[in-house]
């Protein structure tokens, strides 16, 4: 990939490029295993390190924000003519890419990784699988279990709709230039059945609970506790990270029905 050495990396876009072929092969194998026959959309392909593994797939498109890398990809991989799209994924909609459900994959820019996850949650019925590389801390938070220090807003809101799994670490030495953090690869798969919950109230309640995560739920959710009997329930003695996903769902349904 020496052809792109003249292109200066844009730090504001979180550009650190993966160069370790062993790691790239491992990500590619994970994509084949978890996405099955779904069309693939690679987000933020940059210089095309992962693209060279995926280019043979028929139902495959790439979306890149940086015009310089779009031009590089078109020159480096002429067989991808018509498949490289210059656009901001965060401002796009699923129909811009495919007319049926597809998987989102990639080595995602760290500075917008959480936004990418929330975008996929918004389009959960169009994107049943997402697999990619994040900053390890973010990937661990998305996949975190109740009771852990990583368990928070993004854990609960993602796991309401997706089953998540942390796959493996990627060391700093696998990149050029090396980032200052360890990276991690994770996968999200759409749940086969949605939980019965009001999504708007659920999101509002979860954010309120974790915005004061050191407080008990009795304190952080006090604006919803109009019923004295409900207020005294044992569940409100817990802090938010101590509550399971099922616990949040039950709590949301109880409070939402109380405040109708």
What does this structure look like?
This protein is an alpha/beta fold and 260 residues long. The protein folds into two domains: 2-190, Rossmann fold; 199-258, Helicase, Ruva Protein, domain 3. The chain has ten helices and nine strands. The protein has helices at residues 21-35, 51-54, 67-76, 113-122, 136-142, 153-159, 199-211, 217-220, 228-231, 245-258, and strands at 17-18, 40-43, 60-64, 84-86, 103-107, 129-135, 162-170, 175-176, 183-190. The strands form two sheets. The protein has a seven-stranded mixed sheet, with helices on both faces. Helix 7 (199-211) crosses helix 10 (245-258). It is elongated.
What characteristics describe this protein?
7-stranded mixed sheet; 260 residues; two-stranded antiparallel sheet; Helicase, Ruva Protein, domain 3; Rossmann fold; elongated; 10 helices; alpha/beta; single chain
Q: What about the largest sheet? A: 7 strands, mixed
Write down the overall mean pLDDT: 92
> Looking across the biggest beta sheet, what order are the strands in?
4-3-2-5-6-9-7
Which class do the helix and strand fractions yield?
A: alpha/beta
Radius of gyration: 20 Å
CATH superfamily of the largest domain: Vaccinia Virus protein VP39
Count of DSSP E strands?
9
CATH-scheme architecture of the largest domain: 3-Layer(aba) Sandwich
What percent of residues adopt helix (DSSP H or I)? 25-40%
Please state roughly what percent of the residues sit in beta strands, choosing from under 5%, 5-15%, 15-25%, 25-35%, 35-45% or over 45%.
15-25%
Q: What is the terminal-to-terminal distance?
A: 60 Å
Instruction: Indicate the overall shape.
Output: elongated
Annotation field: number of helices:
10
Total of domains:
2
**Which topology of the largest domain does CATH recognise?**
Rossmann fold
Question: What is the CATH class designation of the largest domain?
Answer: Alpha Beta
Q: Low-confidence parts lasting 5 or more residues at pLDDT below 50?
A: none
